[in-house]
Specification:
Length: 387
């Protein structure tokens, strides 16, 4: 087990009707709040009116910036920075999933920075101060409600990049599983894959003595495998929705990282897909991760055997461990198919035309991945495996 530092100060406020506490929580941090959210569904199902009432009941001055898109855009972040500066806003409330939260984090950091916010994403600056951010979570997927990172797409060149730091972690996250009842099946399934991918990026490590976090990773994966079909079949099943929602947080709050090296190649490879083609992140990961596994399993076959036997209950073939591995990957793909997620680029109408461009962008700062270092040609081959 490697040495580690762990810090996560986000307060998790979880359960039925907890969104009614949003006014009192925001009031602990500021008087002028930016309400940051995405599209019309927030208003369609009444959550917008409820939150606005709770904020105004606490005499908070509310400014709004809607229009956050999946794969949130840098242009809206810059608009939010100007809005906060012009009105001396002192708190940002993100209502939505990872896109709204990541956008809010970038706005908060950008307000306190004298240069261009994109500097953070290009590694030209590190974040040292930010406006505080709070969350009302509506889509369990990205885990951004208590993570230290933000991912934004720059329309100039369609670069999708991330930056991070503990200071970006939201002050609180209000999480009511009932809010997720109205999620379309596609978003529920894509969110589940995103959660699994966050675990897998940590699970595939070359560290040998990490039994506790191995078991935690496996527990989160099996929880998603068990509860996602239930949520899809019975959208108002509180218990399955609750399991998925808290799994989203645990998968990406840093706890599963402790003592182990991590990978993140699949995320970087997928970012090029969603940056250029605007595919839903979870759907892109459903395509990339099995291909990444097929390309890399021989580098640490014992780790992949463990994945197959512990997560997918594949019977160990002691005479042919490779067969055990391939059966585990097959079961993973079958699960993805069973929840109507794509596992091939062709299912997302993506051809090979831009493979080289995407691989070049993914590796412009050098090879990617911690489990196996991948160069441009490796990534092109993974895209080909995913065709």
């Amino acid at each position: 087990m490697l040495n580690f530092n762990f810090q996560n100060a986000t307060e998790i406020i979880f359960g039925k009707n907890v969104e009614e506490k949003v006014g009192e929580k925001v009031a602990q941090y500021g008087n002028k709040v930016l309400l940051h959210y995405g599209g019309s569904s927030l208003k369609k199902f009444g959550l917008y009116d409820k939150i606005l009432k709770e904020l105004k009941d606490k005499n908070l001055e509310v400014f709004e910036l809607g229009g956050v898109l999946p794969n949130p855009r840098l242009s809206l972040v810059r608009e939010g920075i100007d809005l906060c500066r012009d009105n001396n806003i002192d708190f940002i409330l993100a209502v939505g999933g990872g896109s709204a939260i990541d956008s809010a984090k970038a706005i908060g950091a950008g307000v306190k920075y004298h240069g261009d916010v994109w500097d953070f994403f290009e590694g030209k600056a590190g974040v040292i101060d930010t406006l505080p951010v709070g969350v009302v979570l509506t889509i369990p997927a990205a885990g951004s409600e208590s993570s230290s990172g933000s991912v934004i797409t720059n329309e100039e060149g369609w670069y999708k990049k991330s930056f991070g730091g503990n200071i970006l972690r939201p002050k609180f996250a209000i999480m009511n599983p009932e809010i997720t009842y109205t999620l379309p099946s596609y978003q529920t399934a894509a969110g589940a894959v995103d959660i699994m991918a966050h675990v897998l990026e940590r699970y595939f490590t070359n560290e040998k003595h990490v039994e506790l976090t191995d078991r935690l990773c496996e527990g989160v994966l099996k929880t998603i495998i068990s509860n996602t079909p239930k949520a899809l079949d019975f959208p108002e099943d509180y218990n399955s929705r609750a399991e998925i929602m808290i799994a989203s947080t645990v998968a990406h709050n840093g706890w599963l990282d402790i003592g182990r090296s991590t990978d993140w190649a699949s995320h970087q490879i997928e970012h090029e897909l969603s940056g250029i083609y605007d595919i839903t992140h979870g759907a892109g990961l459903a395509i990339i991760f099995p291909a990444w596994m097929k390309y890399n399993y021989k580098s640490n076959i014992d780790r992949f055997v463990q994945f197959a036997t512990r997560v997918w209950n594949v019977e160990m073939n002691y005479y042919d461990p490779e067969a055990t591995v391939l059966e585990g990957i097959k079961k993973f793909e079958e699960f993805l198919t069973s929840i109507d997620m794509p596992t091939r680029l062709s299912q997302a109408n993506i051809d090979s035309e831009r493979f080289e461009e995407m691989a070049t962008k993914a590796t412009e700062n050098g090879p990617v991945g911690g489990f196996v270092k991948l160069n441009k040609d490796d990534i092109i081959n993974i895209y080909k495996l995913a065709e």
